Amino acid sequence: MSLLKNLGNKALNTAKVVGSKSQDMMEVGKLKLQISQIEGEIKKLKSEIGEVVYSAYASGQGSPSEQVVSLCETINAKYAEIEELKLKIQQVQND
User: Fold this and answer.
1) Number of folded domains that form the chain
2) Which residues lie below 8 Å from residue 62, measured CB to CB, with a gap of 6+?
3) Contact predicate 38/15, CB 8 Å
4) Per-residue pLDDT reduced to its tens digit, 65-90
């Protein structure tokens, strides 16, 4: 009887560990997806910088520095978000 109980407890503990690891893998997947989405946003912002600069050049305007600086600050904030997400991934993986 205790052998069956012991086997049952081991099976339950194994199931809990597997479930926990699966949940961790899902969380890491979600975080990596968020990073990819942010990287896509950064790519769009960089493209927008190029469009702003070229439009200013083509129309003979002066330097569009205010717009460019604003876009660059947004990009820096996005990179900071990515770093935070990478830290979360490390925390999940180390648990």
Assistant:
1) 1
2) 56
3) no
4) 899 999 999 999 999 999 999 999 99
pTM as predicted: 0.75
Q: Which domain holds residue 79?
A: 23-94
Residue 16 in any domain: the answer is: no
pLDDT at 19 over 60: yes
* C-alpha dihedral (55, 61, 64, 67), degrees to nearest 10: -70
Q: Positive or negative, the Cα torsion across 63, 66, 70, 76?
A: positive
Residues 5, 11: Cα–Cα separation, whole Å: 10
Q: Is residue 72 part of a domain?
A: yes
What's the CA gap between 48 and 68, in Å, rounded?
A: 9
The pLDDT value given to residue 11: 65
